[in-house]
């Protein structure tokens, strides 16, 4: 059916494209923008591996159409590190073994980003609740919880607000 | 797992949206997309025309309207959960939301979309029934108001017609002193309910007044427990009364089995959760 032109900002860069309405935002990010860091596990909203930050909120990119992102500001995992310097949340996942295969990690990072922006000092229960919508088949979650706890401390120490804008 | 092709429409106001729905084509409303897009990805839904209502900012509100709180079609779960109006007047809704889906889903999903989707295991239809909410349904040239008890018809079925939009949900503020209870068992937190029990009641001279109880997840449709309400009305709260009422409710219910929980287990859950909910409601009533 008729393609639509869209314009949006992804990781700080203005992107323009023409897409069929049925194209999922996840496929648009991976295939049209060649940013395959956003993973696709279930394509029905259950696993959270496709979570990206859209206008400051973590959302499932497999449950949005690319046309709906017209005018949006999106951060994917590729937008987190600055050159070779990992984002503090990424650094904490690295140090605390918050990943094994890494499939769930981009979605976990998007979720952690939103959580820490809203709640700089979450309890373990709050971290558990926040990542309840992200499935991990490897870590058993405990190291992910430690990583987010450690990331929160790093971010508080650095006294830098986690911006949900591209960093 | 890719949706079939559709024509995409993104009206800027309600009138334009209603006109599209009245076109006679095979249209479908897209709100938060958290139930519809999974169905489209599975091709369980293949609308010809998708009417995206996300630009109807006129419907994005949670407002105090005297005796009721009015929630518009675009109010997202996350906004309702954190709304100070909801926390002050309807804390049962804020509590229920901590059991409904996950933050990323609540950021997009809407209450009205949730009610129109009418999953049998969805919590909000039961809460709408005990709050005796009213649904404002609009189509080109007219509005109608439907009581929550008449709105839900069956599994994924409501009284909404293809050319209509649920534009607003009106929630009466519970009377002073009303206590509430909410309990749920699901496979994991954030999953659809195997059994949710909700209740509100008041105490008048130490006796139960206006008890309202509903179940979700158990039968094909959220249901008020009229017999239990009658048995409780005018009685002083006590443990053996609550156990008897729960026993009778568990016997009377007609559970639908699902892939992950069978009917006998659901009966057990009704028996176990109902007294807890009643105790909480009594403890919270003043
Ligand atoms: C992982 C996951 C877990 C979930 N867990 C739960 C849970 O525990 N409990 C629960 O209740 N829900 C749960 N949900 C569903 C979630 O609450 C959805 O947000 C909700 O069911 C649908 O709302 P929506 O705005 O996303 O609607 P959409 O998906 O956009 O639409 C749903 C249906 O309603 C129609 N519709 C939408 N808005 C209107 C309107 N205003 N008027 C008329 N028709 C309309 C659409 O055409 C469609 O048929 C879960 C979803 C996911 C992905
Ligand atoms: S791929 Fe989007 S939630 Fe699983
Ligand atoms: S690290 Fe493998 S799925 Fe989480």
UniProtKB/TrEMBL annotation, chain A:
It comes from the Bacteria. Transmembrane segments: none annotated. GO terms for molecular function: 2 iron, 2 sulfur cluster binding; metal ion binding; oxidoreductase activity. Residues 4-80 form the 2Fe-2S ferredoxin-type domain. InterPro entries: 2Fe-2S-bd, 2Fe-2S_ferredoxin-type, 2Fe2S_fd_BS, Diverse_Oxidoreductases. PROSITE patterns: 2FE2S_FER_1, 2FE2S_FER_2. Keywords: 2Fe-2S, Iron, Iron-sulfur, Metal-binding, Oxidoreductase. PANTHER family: OXIDOREDUCTASE WITH IRON-SULFUR SUBUNIT. This is (2Fe-2S)-binding protein.
UniProtKB/TrEMBL annotation, chain B:
Keywords: FAD, Flavoprotein, Oxidoreductase. Pfam families: CO_deh_flav_C, FAD_binding_5. GO terms for molecular function: FAD binding; oxidoreductase activity. Coiled coil: none annotated. Residues 1-176 form the FAD-binding PCMH-type domain. The keyword Lipid metabolism does not apply. SMART domains: CO_deh_flav_C. It comes from the Bacteria. The keyword Zinc-finger does not apply. PANTHER family: XANTHINE DEHYDROGENASE SUBUNIT C-RELATED (PTHR42659). This is Xanthine dehydrogenase family protein subunit M.
């Amino acid at each position: 059916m008729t393609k639509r032109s869209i314009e949006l900002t992804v990781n700080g860069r203005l992107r323009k494209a023409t897409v069929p309405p049925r194209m999922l935002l996840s496929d648009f990010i991976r295939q049209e923008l060649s940013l395959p860091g956003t993973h696709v596990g279930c394509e029905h909203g259950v696993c959270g591996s496709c979570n990206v930050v859209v206008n400051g909120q973590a959302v499932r990119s497999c449950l949005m159409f690319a046309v709906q992102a017209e005018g949006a500001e999106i951060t994917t995992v590729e937008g987190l590190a600055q050159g070779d310097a990992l984002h503090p949340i990424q650094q904490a996942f690295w140090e605390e073994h918050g990943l094994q295969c890494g499939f769930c990690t981009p979605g976990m990072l998007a979720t952690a980003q939103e959580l820490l922006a809203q709640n700089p000092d979450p309890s373990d229960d709050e971290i558990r609740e926040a990542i309840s919508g992200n499935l991990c088949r490897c870590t058993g979650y405990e190291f992910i919880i430690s990583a987010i706890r450690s990331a929160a401390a790093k971010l508080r120490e650095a006294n830098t607000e986690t911006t949900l804008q591209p960093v | 797992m890719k949706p079939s092709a559709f024509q995409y429409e993104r009206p800027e106001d309600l009138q334009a949206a209603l006109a599209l729905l009245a076109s006679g084509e095979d249209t479908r409303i897209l709100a938060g997309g958290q139930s519809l897009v999974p169905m489209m990805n599975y091709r369980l839904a293949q609308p010809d025309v998708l009417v995206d209502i996300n630009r109807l900012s006129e419907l994005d509100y949670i407002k105090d309207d005297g005796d009721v709180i009015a929630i518009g079609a675009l109010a997202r779960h996350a906004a309702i959960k954190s709304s100070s109006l909801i926390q002050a007047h309807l804390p049962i809704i804020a509590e229920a939301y901590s059991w409904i889906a996950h933050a990323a889903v609540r950021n997009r999903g809407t209450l009205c979309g949730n009610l129109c989707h009418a999953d049998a295991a969805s919590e909000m239809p039961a809460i709408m029934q005990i709050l005796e909410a009213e649904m404002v349904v609009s189509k080109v040239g007219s509005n109608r108001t439907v009581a929550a008890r008449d709105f839900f018809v069956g599994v994924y079925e409501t009284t909404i017609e293809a050319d209509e939009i649920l534009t607003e949900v009106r929630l009466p503020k519970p009377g002073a002193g009303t206590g509430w209870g909410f309990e749920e068992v699901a496979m994991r937190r954030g999953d659809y309910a195997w059994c949710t029990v909700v209740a509100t009641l008041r105490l008048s001279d130490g006796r139960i007044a206006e008890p309202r109880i509903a179940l979700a997840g158990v039968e094909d449709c959220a249901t008020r427990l009229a017999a239990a309400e009658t048995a409780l009305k005018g009685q002083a709260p006590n443990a053996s009364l609550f156990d008897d009422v729960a026993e009778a409710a568990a016997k009377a219910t007609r559970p639908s089995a699902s892939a992950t929980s069978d009917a006998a287990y659901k009966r057990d859950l009704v028996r176990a959760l109902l007294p807890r909910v009643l105790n909480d409601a009594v403890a919270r009533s003043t």
